[in-house]
Amino acid sequence: MYDEPRPARPASPTQRTAAVIPAAGRGVRLGPGAPKALRSLGGTPMLIHAVRAMARSRAVSLVVVVAPSDGAAEVRNLLDEHALPDRTDILVVPGGDTRQESVRAGLDALPADVTAVLIHDAARPLVPVDTVDAVVEAIRDGAPAVVPAMPLSDTVKEVEPGPPGAPEPVVATPERARLRAVQTPQGFDRATLVKAHDTIAVNGEGATDDAGMVEKLGVPVVLVPGHEEAFKVTRPLDLVLAEAVLARRRATDAY
Ligand code: CTP
Ligand code: MG
């Protein structure tokens, strides 16, 4: 008999984990072309890489893709054209004008039995499954909000922002050893993240990441180690790096 590999800690029957993939951005910083999530990486749309990265985790049984508002049908077709694991359910919903609204649209589409949710940028197509599983594991251990993060290479300055190109006065230099750059998937107890959206978003405060909204509720957020291959494809040079990572994986067959 063939034994299927199992996650280290099986979910209890009452726990179900879903991943929401916000993919509705235009990709302005990447330059002119199709919406970023639909651009090709090694011959396959970035979004498909991101969906596969979530589906590779045996903990994830549902993936909700938040498509560009005018591109839901195209995204549905792309998902049908590419091989994805049978055990993973896929839903497609239209996104909003901001990332936060897109995440909200994904949360609203979750079935009632989903208790934990991962929010993962389509723009981080190469996140390794071990990073996904580390986030899921921490949620299952009881953390309400879990974020993969990396130490910084560059020193960071706080400035008084000026007009583009003008010299900007430095206000402070935070101690680099205490700073982390955060990645996705960020994992949450579903009820906690929904509460954050209900209260923080309504107050119009917002946040630049999902965990930031939960922090504003006063709920503790923990970091787990991220991975250098979970970088976000934002600018053209990031595409060069992503292609190189894919080529290395193919050459070493280590993935
Ligand atoms: N996103 C989204 N809905 C929006 C804006 C962004 O679902 N209205 C998603 C993007 O598709 C991406 C993730 O949020 O997967 C992270 O956003 P970012 O890297 O900023 O992507 P874009 O907004 O597409 O890029 P840019 O800011 O350069 O336009
Ligand atoms: Mg953006």
UniProtKB/TrEMBL annotation:
Alphabetical list of SUPFAM superfamilies matching this protein: Nucleotide-diphospho-sugar transferases (SSF53448)
Known EC number: 2.7.7.60
GO molecular function per UniProt: 2-C-methyl-D-erythritol 4-phosphate cytidylyltransferase activity
Catalysis: reaction(s): 2-C-methyl-D-erythritol 4-phosphate + CTP + H(+) = 4-CDP-2-C-methyl-D-erythritol + diphosphate
Record PROSITE patterns: ISPD (PS01295)
InterPro entries with a match to the protein in the record: IspD, IspD/TarI, IspD/TarI_cytidylyltransf_bact, ISPD_synthase_CS, Nucleotide-diphossugar_trans
The keyword Transferase belongs to this UniProt entry's keyword annotation: yes
Pathway: Isoprenoid biosynthesis; isopentenyl diphosphate biosynthesis via DXP pathway; isopentenyl diphosphate from 1-deoxy-D-xylulose 5-phosphate: step 2/6
Site (Positions MEP for the nucleophilic attack): residue numbering on this chain: 176, 232
Site residues by UniProt (Transition state stabilizer): 29, 36
UniProt-listed GO biological process terms: isopentenyl diphosphate biosynthetic process, methylerythritol 4-phosphate pathway
Keywords associated with the record: Isoprene biosynthesis, Nucleotidyltransferase, Transferase
Known function: Catalyzes the formation of 4-diphosphocytidyl-2-C-methyl-D-erythritol from CTP and 2-C-methyl-D-erythritol 4-phosphate (MEP).
Stored HAMAP family: IspD (MF_00108)
Assigned protein family: Belongs to the IspD/TarI cytidylyltransferase family. IspD subfamily.
Name the record gives this protein: 2-C-methyl-D-erythritol 4-phosphate cytidylyltransferase
Annotated organism of origin: Streptomyces venezuelae
Lineage: Bacteria, Bacillati, Actinomycetota, Actinomycetes, Kitasatosporales
Gene from which the chain derives: ispD
